[in-house]
Task: structure prediction
Amino acid sequence: GAVVSQHPSWVICKSGTSVKIECRSLDFQATTMFWYRQFPKQSLMLMATSNEGSKATYEQGVEKDKFLINHASLTLSTLTVTSAHPEDSSFYICSASPPGTNYGYTFGSGTRLTVV
Amino acid sequence: DAKTTQPPSMDCAEGRAANLPCNHSTISGNEYVYWYRQIHSQGPQYIIHGLKNNETNEMASLIITEDRKSSTLILPHATLRDTAVYYCIVRVGRGGTSYGKLTFGQGTILTVHP
Result:
């Protein structure tokens, strides 16, 4: 089946530093990937839509200069949290939809970001 | 996408069937019902989806009412590993103009007891 790999699975960083999270589609090409954020005991919230070869589309209230998205190839999208602060600590999840199917989306295993 | 309503939590005994309801009274004719689940600290996992006919796969069954305003996800023999948050999502299928975004509600926390 289609697999989306996300790396790292967890990261701890100091306040003010930047962190990059990778999302790869392992056995299919994904022109579009999605990035979600989930705070403890809350549901997933869509942050942005990553488009291969073009700018990402951000949801309302998400700072595009803080959450940099790069989708340079058909199998890789990256999310960089710049100048991270403790309030950015969250669970970040990416997803993509294998082409030719209608069964929905495959999600990565998520990245737990802790900013100290 | 149409809004969905699910009970916040449910309990089920191991080995018994778990029936998770979902209301989607404003569903449109071109919208599918999708079910995902999320086990603690993992990404969501696709379970099943349907348009208007009942569906069954190796994981679960999906029963959609004739008016399509509600549906039920059935896990026929729940195990402890089925303990998770279950999300019912209504959205257009591939080819729809808004295809791509998934809007997650609060879901139902299913706890399977020994």
User: Anything to note?
Assistant: The mean pLDDT of chain B is 91. The beta strands of chain B are 9-13, 18-23, 31-38, 45-50, 55-56, 61-64, 70-75, 84-92, 108-113.
